[in-house]
Amino acid sequence: MKKVIVLGGGGFIGGHLAKRLKENGNYVRICDIKNHEYFDHREICNEFILGDLTDPKTVELVIAEGWDEVYQLAADMGGAGYIFTGQNDANVMQNSALINLNVAKEATVKNIKKLFYSSSACIYPENNQLDPNNPNCEESSAYPANPDSEYGWEKLFSERLFKAYKRNYNLNVRIARFHNIFGPQGTWKGGKEKAPAAMLRKAAETPDGGSFEVWGDGQQTRSFLYVEECVTAVLSLMESEFEGPVNIGSEEKVTINQLAQMAIDISGKDITIKNIYGQEFIDKYGFKCPLGVRGRNSDNALFKKELGWEVSAPLIEGMTKTYEWISEVISQHQLVEA
Fold it and tell me: d(Cα 214, Cα 337) in Å, to the nearest integer?
């Protein structure tokens, strides 16, 4: 039995990862600044420490001698409405950088056998993602660096930080760049939700014959990976000798309008998509429509070559499962409010 630490286990991906690790027979310690909103602690870990990982004293306490693996997923992050407005840049950069500086140091000092760091597709150059039909997100395209957000710059810095600890202090690290992970037990409202959850929530809440908004012209492209696929890929990477950075995502590219229509089709309702941008958006929300890059799609050639991993199910399957969960949560909220 391995002893593993999941930093950020109170979050969406971290909670699913911790749950799988515990189910696989590992002893799991979680640390997060918040409790998991949907998982019971006993379901996902053996120990839960409520703590702020930007504080070096907390990290010193959590990462102890004799533990085998650390999974570092803790970060200040969210969807387009949080990352791309520019209003949260200082917090995003400071909080996440502090966490990673603390973790790299303590994992080295405490002789942790192996560390996983979750980077992001947001590190890729903006100029490689201007054509929605032909984005370039191959791992080797990361440099010359030109991320489109401060979140991406911080992730790129932290990749280099962990690699430097590998070179200078022999920290055994694995790095993956996540591409839009989604699924149940994640944020689905409030501004920090990702596009799949936002579309599915809107489809669930919009009455038959109604309409809902999609930010921008809806022609920007993305790929989305179901969370259970992501967890499988992470564990596969950790069991290998391959260090990365490597993409973990789906190669099934869709436009945002297609994603919205998929959510509508799953709901079984007759709903119209209303694209909103330009002055209309500014008048309504008070800031420029946050869209991110025009095109982004995971390139999985390297992961397939090094580890043989491939996505096992189409996007529609994960979207259907997530819609069922969001619909149930909405129904529960309505019962409580009634």
Answer: 27
48 touches 23 (CB < 8 A): no
- Alpha-carbon distance 291 to 92, whole Å? 18
Q: At what angle do helices 315-337 and 195-205 cross, to 10 degrees?
A: 50
Q: What one-character-per-residue DSSP string does 102-146 give?
A: HHHHHHHHTT-SEEEEEEEGGGS-GGGSSSTTS----GGGG-S--
DSSP state at residue 240 = S
For the chain, which residues make up each domain, given as ranges? Answer: 3-181+224-248, 183-223+253-296+313-332
The secondary structure of 183-200, three-state, reads: CCCCCCCCCCCCHHHHHH
Please state the pTM of the whole predicted model.
0.94
Which CATH architecture does the domain made up of 183-223+253-296+313-332 adopt?
A: Alpha-Beta Complex (3.90)
Q: What is the pLDDT of residue 253?
A: 97
Task: Report H helices in the chain.
Answer: 12-23, 41-44, 56-62, 80-83, 89-109, 150-169, 195-205, 227-239, 256-267, 278-285, 301-307, 315-337
pLDDT of 324 over the 80 cut: yes
Token pair 């499988």: residue? 232
Active site residue 117: no
Using CA atoms, how far apart are residues 275 and 19, in angstroms rounded to an integer?
38
| pLDDT value of position 224 | 97
Q: Please, what is the average pLDDT of the chain?
A: 93
Asked whether residue 118 carries a pLDDT value surpassing 70, the answer given is: yes
Instruction: Give the burial class of 225: count Cβ atoms within 10 A of its Cβ; 0-12 exposed, 13-18 middle, 19 or more buried.
Output: buried
pLDDT tens-digit profile of 93-110?
999 999 999 999 999 999
Within this chain, domains 3-181+224-248 and 183-223+253-296+313-332 share the same CATH topology: no
User: 151, 165, 226, 323: which is the annotated catalytic residue?
Assistant: 151
pLDDT at 78 over 90: no
* pLDDT tier at 294, thresholds 50, 70, 90: very high
- Range scoring the smallest mean pLDDT among 8-17, 65-74, 276-285: 276-285
CATH of domain 3-181+224-248: 3.40.50.720
